[in-house]
Design a protein that fits this description.
Length: about 475
Amino acid sequence: MADKFDVIVIGAGPGGYVAAIRAAQLGLKTACVEKWIGKEGKVVFGGTCLNVGCIPSKALLEASHKFVEAKHDFADMGIQAGDVSMDVKKMMARKDTIVKNLTGGIAGLFKANGVTGIEGTGKVVGAKQVEVTDQDGKATTYEADNIVIAAGSVPVEIPPTPLTEGLIVDSTGALEFQEVPKRLGVIGAGVIGLELGSVWSRLGSEVTVLEAMDSFLPMVDSAIAKETQKLLKKQGLDIKLGARVTGSEVKGQEVVVKYTDSDGEQEMTFDKLIVCVGRRPYTRGVVADGVGVGLDERGFIHVDDQCRTSVPGVYAIGDCVRGQMLAHKASEEGIMVADIIAGHKAEMNYDAIPCVIYTFPEVAWVGMTEQDAKAKGIEVKTGSFPFAASGRAMANNATEGQAKIIADAETDRILGMHIVGQHAGEMIAQGVIALEFGSSAEDLALTCYAHPTMSEAVHEAALAVEGHAIHMANRKKRK
């Protein structure tokens, strides 16, 4: 038997590494197990988020957005940039450098906080035992009073479009293109599909997004979703709703995709195809049979509101449990679990978790949509404000989009905030704080905002809830 720990965390993604660091900060002897092999053949920390998810995709989104700005928008500001081109390989190399720096940074944080990093594949083999198998197949069993499963998730593959090296790829493969495909197909109009489609559309690809659902971004307030769809279409993304992919065929260096829509059977040919139809929990083989940790039919580990499994001392967090598959949700669960293990009282407000789509403009939301509230029988009042009426948005050449607040008609309590616009991902924190503290729309309306800022749109939306917006014509009668 190898070393004994107070806590062993399986997985060093944004849930696992945060849980491990927090546990160590609280004085617990902690280890974190990771199997991810990086491009240099060594184990790296950070999980999907840092290696092939949040961080590299944002590097490409930012680079491609600056390219579009330089090529099409700078002239409006009086900047003559001349003939602008993109070096895709250099863009990819920069992305890889950012990933390397951040994953290496986690190793430094482990060392600074006294977390023991264990390389290999972790498996819970008992209520207090974790078996780790290294790259050579050697298995070592460690004891731990507490175990945190943070194994993450992997992209879903679908039978009609089996992955084919370099032609039919998942989100990971889409981050490695070395040249811009002329015709790009994307299956799935969710967060990942829209972000990756935007990257390559900006760089010159003819992008078609095939979405099986008839509605666009159903998790977003309908007014914001409708405006987002219009803006993305204007940018060149051809989003086909109600398009169910039925098959594909690789012909040389092309992919022929078959799908059905309201007009019947259709066919399109692409140079590359990205499959972005969601992710599934990576729980297969993480827990040995007979341990007693329960899984549902989709592979998610059963946990309570504080991430306890059915086995005392065994917790599970992040993408492998219920709820949204978000890095920040996993991190907060990791902190909560570490605090609980250390004997502190901790809980998490799952109604105040923000979501962001990093297209341009960004789409961000937290809490209920107007349609959610109405479905629950809650009478609401709403306030919206367009960025077209914002002085800072005009100065930024970013007047597209709007901010919207949904409040309880009786209590004025803010139920949700939805934004499409430049920096929406930063501004949504106001909505998160408002929900966390049970704020009313009046609370935001009475708050002094800096001028000129994009955030003033949130202030005006709060004022608009009662028809008191200053910088637009009010449809409601002032009280």
